[in-house]
Write a structure and sequence with these properties.
The protein is α+β, with helices and mostly antiparallel strands. It has helices spanning 3-6, 13-21, 90-95; strands at residues 31-34, 47-52, 60-64, 70-75, 104-112, 118-120, 126-129, 135-137, 150-151.
C-alpha cells in the first residue's frame, strides 16, 4: 500500500503531517464535539464540551454529559512532544468528513499517575472536525510505534 492510499489528508504527506504539528489553537469555551462511536472503552459517551482549563493552560477538559457525566483532561500533542506523528486512515477521515488538515483538531487524553506525574496517551488521539464538531478517538495506522503513557515534562 502506498502512502497516498493510507493517508487521507490529501495531496501530499506534508499536508497530512500538518495535522499533528500545526500551531495549536486553544479551544473556545464550550466547543461541542459529537462522538458517534463514543470513546474507546466508553462507547456510550457521545456528546462532549471541550473547555480550556483556565488556570492550567494548555490543558482542556473534555466534558461528556448525558446518562453518565464523565470528564477527561486533554492536551494538544504539540505541547507534549514536537516529534509526535501518527497516520490517520482513510476510513477515519471519511467518517469525520475531513478533506484538509487545517480542518482537523487533535487532542490526547492525560492521565494523573499515582506518583503525581502526568502521562499522555499518544496511541489513541482524539481527532475532530473543527467545522462540524464530529469527533472520534482513533487507532492510528502506526499505533504499534506510539506509547500509551508518554511522560509530560514539567
Amino acid at each position: 500500500m502506498q502512502v497516498a492510499d493510507r493517508l487521507c489528508l490529501l495531496r501530499n504527506e506534508s499536508d497530512f503531517w500538518d495535522l499533528c504539528t500545526s500551531t495549536p489553537e486553544t479551544p473556545d469555551s464550550g466547543v461541542t464535539l459529537m462522538f458517534p462511536d463514543g470513546l474507546l472503552g466508553f462507547e456510550t459517551l457521545r456528546k462532549a464540551a471541550l473547555e480550556p482549563v483556565s488556570d492550567a493552560p494548555p490543558f482542556s477538559w473534555l466534558k461528556f454529559s448525558g446518562e453518565v457525566d464523565q470528564s477527561f483532561l486533554v492536551v494538544a500533542p504539540v505541547f507534549v512532544t514536537a516529534s509526535y506523528r501518527f497516520e490517520l486512515g482513510t476510513t477515519d477521515c471519511r467518517t469525520l468528513n475531513l478533506t484538509r488538515a487545517s480542518d482537523a483538531g487533535v487532542v490526547n487524553i492525560v492521565t494523573l499517575r499515582r506518583d503525581g506525574s502526568l502521562t499522555v496517551n499518544l496511541k489513541g488521539p482524539i481527532v475532530f472536525n473543527k467545522l462540524t464538531g464530529e469527533a472520534r478517538q482513533v487507532v492510528p495506522i502506526n499505533a504499534a510505534e506510539l506509547p500509551v503513557n508518554f511522560p509530560v515534562a514539567n
